């Protein structure tokens, strides 16, 4: 416990903790920008998907369920 208290008083530890804020903010902003472009790309791909899927899905043997 004494070592933790001594490490908290160390100037280098304080400078590392102070520098963590801007680095974390840059990381979060980078993730946000990446998510924006990912969703933009997914939205574009989903517009290309056919809206009318066949109602009868073929089974494993290739026959439809209504046959």
Report on this structure:
The protein is mainly α and 67 residues long. It has a domain at 2-40. The chain is built from 2 helices and no strands. The chain has helices at residues 2-9, 11-48. It is elongated, with a radius of gyration of 27 Å. The N and C termini lie far apart (74 Å). The model has no long low-confidence stretch (mean pLDDT 76).
Short overview:
By secondary structure, the protein is an all-alpha fold.
CA(first)-CA(last) distance? 74 Å
Helices and strands, in order, run as HH
Q: Segments where pLDDT lies below 50 for 5+ residues?
A: none
Count the beta strands.
0
Mean pLDDT equals: 76
Helix content: 55-70%
Relative strand content: under 5%
Molecular shape = elongated
Largest sheet: none
> Gyration radius, to the nearest Å?
27 Å
Number of DSSP helical runs: 2
- Helix/strand/pairing category: mainly alpha
Write the layout of secondary structure elements.
Elements: H1 2-9, H2 11-48
Considering the chains and any ligands shown, give keywords for the structure.
67 residues, 2 helices, mainly alpha
